[in-house]
Amino acid sequence: LSTYSVCEKMKVKTEYPNQTVVSHFFLEGLRFTAEHPSLFFLLFLLIYSITMMGNLLILITVGCDPQLRSPMYHFLGHLSFLDACLSTVTVPKVMAGLLTLDGKLISFEGCTIQLYCFHFLASTECFLYTVMAYDRYLAICQPLHYPVAMNRRMCAGLAGITWATGAVHSAIHTSLTFHLPYCGPHHIAYFFCDIPPVLKLACADTTTNELVMLANIGIVAAGCLILIVISYVFIAAAVLRMHTAEGRQRACSTCTAHLTVVLLYYMPPVCIYLQPSSSGVGAGAPAVFYTIVTPMLNPFIYTLRNKEVKRALRRLLWPGSPESPARGPPQ
């Protein structure tokens, strides 16, 4: 990415010899933090600490507890790692900007890397939610076929595909965004390098980029959401056919947690990417929610709604406490 950025800047110098090539950007940050930067620094530090500890705890629990070996927990481990990384891409830079003005500066290469990493992790998480919905569909609608269909090799393959697809998806957007010339101004009216606010600074027409962004992100997000909805239509029908209240409760406990995080993930980006012209300092609230708050909430959502995870956490944190083993097959 760094070599790519250098090549692009050399290209701009050649095509625009009388214009200054941008070597860095200035992140204007969040408007509501300007009056009390120290207070918001402590708030973001607390959120970031909780996010890292919560997701790390989920990762350790899933990795160490032998009773959490089902595919659902395999994918939950990937989700926790993604949430920790997604928060790390944005929050430390936000906190640096709250301390000093120099903390708001980001190099052209750094902006390129941040934009790529953000969309890589965010799109990978989008694909992972779809895979998790498919996993729940197989577990509830086809329980006899589930152990064969979702074996260890299939789990690893699906997880690998989500990461690879996210990397390609982000590479397309990053290359299209920084293929444009940037020759000033350099103030990004946002708290991190994202496509809509960066495109505003380009010294060329960005209509094609905006159309590609809306089409690509829209098709990917809508496609994943449609697959998730279809999975849950079949799941709801299967749950209604269950004869025992315990079976319904076990199915709902895992599905409601997944549905909750899906809603938290999808709603804010829709507000941002369907209206790219509105992405400015004042439009940062939806982005703060799904880039900073949602990664913090996900461990709590899965822990509070899942008895297996709560039991495993108790076994991990208090090894000597009496804890009966989970009955029945994994959720």
Automatic annotation (TrEMBL):
<keyword id="KW-0472">Membrane</keyword>
<keyword id="KW-0807">Transducer</keyword>
<dbReference type="InterPro" id="IPR000276">
    <property type="entry name" value="GPCR_Rhodpsn"/>
</dbReference>
<keyword id="KW-0675">Receptor</keyword>
<feature type="transmembrane region" description="Helical">
    <location>
        <begin position="155"/>
        <end position="172"/>
    </location>
</feature>
<feature type="transmembrane region" description="Helical">
    <location>
        <begin position="287"/>
        <end position="305"/>
    </location>
</feature>
<keyword id="KW-0297">G-protein coupled receptor</keyword>
<protein>
    <submittedName>
        <fullName>Olfactory receptor family 10 subfamily S member 1</fullName>
    </submittedName>
</protein>
<dbReference type="Pfam" id="PF13853">
    <property type="entry name" value="7tm_4"/>
</dbReference>
<feature type="transmembrane region" description="Helical">
    <location>
        <begin position="217"/>
        <end position="239"/>
    </location>
</feature>
<keyword id="KW-0812">Transmembrane</keyword>
<dbReference type="InterPro" id="IPR000725">
    <property type="entry name" value="Olfact_rcpt"/>
</dbReference>
<feature type="domain" description="G-protein coupled receptors family 1 profile">
    <location>
        <begin position="54"/>
        <end position="302"/>
    </location>
</feature>
<feature type="transmembrane region" description="Helical">
    <location>
        <begin position="39"/>
        <end position="63"/>
    </location>
</feature>
<keyword id="KW-1133">Transmembrane helix</keyword>
<keyword id="KW-1003">Cell membrane</keyword>
<feature type="transmembrane region" description="Helical">
    <location>
        <begin position="113"/>
        <end position="134"/>
    </location>
</feature>
<keyword id="KW-0552">Olfaction</keyword>
<comment type="similarity">
    <text>Belongs to the G-protein coupled receptor 1 family.</text>
</comment>
<dbReference type="InterPro" id="IPR017452">
    <property type="entry name" value="GPCR_Rhodpsn_7TM"/>
</dbReference>
<feature type="transmembrane region" description="Helical">
    <location>
        <begin position="75"/>
        <end position="101"/>
    </location>
</feature>
<dbReference type="GO" id="GO:0005886">
    <property type="term" value="C:plasma membrane"/>
</dbReference>
<feature type="transmembrane region" description="Helical">
    <location>
        <begin position="251"/>
        <end position="267"/>
    </location>
</feature>
<keyword id="KW-0716">Sensory transduction</keyword>
<dbReference type="GO" id="GO:0004984">
    <property type="term" value="F:olfactory receptor activity"/>
</dbReference>
<dbReference type="GO" id="GO:0004930">
    <property type="term" value="F:G protein-coupled receptor activity"/>
</dbReference>
